[in-house]
Design a protein that fits this description.
mainly alpha; Growth Hormone, Chain: A; globular
Length: 419
């Protein structure tokens, strides 16, 4: 990789600590076990919160992406939302283990999630700046693998320094779950500490070459409206966005509810979930890096389809599993296909998007991954609440993955360029 590509990829290392530690493993499980009245209602409340986040991201991301296209301020906006993510994550520290702090936890996680998702729009849009067309799959996949390693490192640090030691370091009160709440402070510091290289090595255009914010906003919205009007004349791009309406919603639900499901259905403790998260990140990093080496040869669409098929099959078996040993074996196998499904989707979007519309298209990319982002958690939460079964609620994920794969099969990928 070039220095610019390495700087860009390092941001995956920095920001992956948030979805890994906060959204998926530690804080999600802490909310379900320590703050919510019970695991089932915790899963439902988490679902309503994720629905609200999805709605905000769906409305804001295409507009902001188009504004960045016109104004050339991708780095500035990435920096702004990275700071928002870190500050809101630190706010989780104030969520004590009591149902009275449900709102504190949910609002903090919601704001941090919005910052994370909107920042990712500008980060993804930088991919064509750092990789040649024939190497985008390799750079994107290896960056995603680096992100899993970053999440793994942060999880391991949280486990070894904060969660496992008893008595806890720094005078943390285990009775008030301060050793778990401090994990949020660690994640906030991690994001700020490691998120700077992309901001240093991928500068925005000179100020003289950029329009004013107001002009960029007007031009960006006009560009977005034009892109939306032209979408029916680009069936491949349209089908890809439609496919993502479903399968990315399924992936998001898998991340958002995986730890809650493990805690409630299999009685896993916070420490067990941390160990599981570390192991899952190892298999996910291996899968992302391994598929990255072959993606440019076999095609991004084919990698996504193969990954979704594996996720559906393994996910169905996981819902039928009994006992922790079966859960571990199936979940770790499933991890091999999570990274490739995401990384190859990012590459496919970069290949499908017209060059002058990359920011707006990645805004739509976020939109197509989030406009139904409130529907999936809403349905999952509703099924869970109606049946009282976490297994029934989690089965919704397989339906979303399957619908997305069926539509994606109709997308024709552009001819690949040799690196």
């Amino acid at each position: 990789m070039t220095r610019r590509a390495l700087a860009w990829a390092s941001y995956d290392w920095a920001n992956s600590a948030f979805p890994t530690v906060v959204s998926t493993f530690v804080i999600a499980a802490y909310f379900a076990q320590g703050i919510a009245p019970d695991p089932a209602s915790g899963q439902a409340l988490w679902g309503w919160m994720q629905s609200a986040v999805g709605l905000v991201v769906a409305l804001a991301s295409p507009v902001l992406g188009a504004i960045a296209d016109r104004g050339g301020r991708r780095r500035a906006m990435l920096g702004l939302f990275t700071l928002l993510t870190a500050l809101a994550t630190a706010g989780i520290w104030f969520a004590e283990p009591d149902p009275a702090f449900v709102a504190v936890a949910l609002v903090s996680v919601a704001i941090a999630s919005i910052g994370f998702e909107l920042g990712t729009v500008f980060y993804n849009a930088m991919l064509p700046q750092v990789a040649a067309p024939g190497a985008m799959g390799r750079v994107s996949g290896l960056a995603w693998g680096l992100g899993y390693v970053g999440g793994l490192a942060c999880l391991a640090l949280a486990l070894l320094v904060l969660v496992r030691p008893d008595p806890s370091p720094f005078g943390l009160d285990r009775g008030q779950a301060e050793h778990v709440r401090a994990v949020a402070l660690l994640v906030a510091a991690w994001i700020l500490l490691f998120g700077w290289p992309v901001l240093a090595f991928l500068p925005d255009p000179p100020a003289a070459a950029r329009p004013r914010w107001g002009d960029a906003a007007r031009e960006g919205v006009a560009e977005l409206l034009g892109i939306l009007r032209r979408l029916p004349r680009s069936p491949g791009v349209l089908r890809f966005h439609l496919a993502r309406l479903f399968y990315t919603d399924g992936l998001n639900m898998l991340f958002a509810f995986g730890a809650i499901f493990a805690a409630g259905a299999f009685g896993m403790t916070i420490e067990e979930i941390l160990l599981f998260g570390i192991a899952l990140n190892v298999t996910a990093a291996a899968g992302a890096a391994g598929f990255a080496l072959v993606e440019d040869r076999f095609g991004s669409r084919n990698v996504v389809l193969a990954s979704l098929a594996a996720l559906i099959g393994l996910g169905a078996l996981l819902l039928l599993a009994e006992g922790k040993a079966a859960f571990w074996a199936l979940a770790l196998s499933l991890g091999l296909f999570i990274g490739p499904a995401q990384a190859a989707s990012r590459t496919l979007m970069a290949r499908l998007a017209p060059p002058g519309e990359i920011g707006a298209q990645f805004g739509l990319f976020a939109l197509s991954g989030r406009i139904t982002g409130f529907v999936g958690p809403f349905v999952l939460a509703g099924v869970t609440a109606a049946t009282g079964s976490q297994h029934a609620g989690m089965a919704v994920i397989l339906l979303f993955l399957g619908a997305g794969a069926a539509i994606l099969a109709l997308v024709e990928e552009p001819a690949r360029v040799s690196p």
